[in-house]
Amino acid sequence: MSLLAAFLNLSGQPAVVAGGGRVALRRTQTLLEAGLQVTVVAPQVHPEFSVLPVTVVQRSCEPADLKDAQVVVAATNDPAVNDRLCAAAHQQGALVNHAGDAALSTLRFPAVISSGDLQVAVSTGRELPMLAQALGERISALLPDSTTVEQWSRQREEALRETGPGRELALQTLRKDIRTTMGVPA
């Protein structure tokens, strides 16, 4: 299966997480970090949900609960319920994550490595989250600090304001500095 690697701006969009266990908690935290407005629907929820800025509905999730959700995560402990919720979410055009069966998902959660505004996402394209996490840890050690990235961003903005040969020279100098710092041949 071929996947589209993309970063989406879904800030402020509604999301529904069906399930209240550890997997649902991790997915909810990821959605909150991206700025989504999350509603968690589950008969019982992990105690850590109480400190999150989410709406909790303590009952079994039904397809009607998914109305208007742009993102749906099915992470209950019942595969048949997850399947039913995913089918309903697909019908309404939502991005869907089936926590127990990636083949039924249109959305997967990669391992994400961050340094300031710099983000690197790693997905194995398979059910190997341990590999993605290990690769993420290795990549993390390679990332420049956020101050350096901010400095490069400012240099780029200044270079783009240049005209004529000065612009290309400034961009070449920045490209060389970045590549040298990252240990990549210029």
UniProtKB/TrEMBL annotation:
GO terms for biological process: siroheme biosynthetic process. GO terms for molecular function: ferrochelatase activity; precorrin-2 dehydrogenase activity. Keywords: NAD, Oxidoreductase, Porphyrin biosynthesis. Its EC number is 1.3.1.76. The keyword Zinc does not apply. It catalyses: precorrin-2 + NAD(+) = sirohydrochlorin + NADH + 2 H(+). Gene3D superfamilies: NAD(P)-binding Rossmann-like Domain, Siroheme synthase, domain 2. It comes from the Bacteria. Signal peptide: none annotated. Pathway: Porphyrin-containing compound metabolism; siroheme biosynthesis; sirohydrochlorin from precorrin-2: step 1/1. It is an enzyme of class 1 (oxidoreductase). It holds the Pfam family NAD_binding_7. The keyword NAD applies. This is precorrin-2 dehydrogenase.
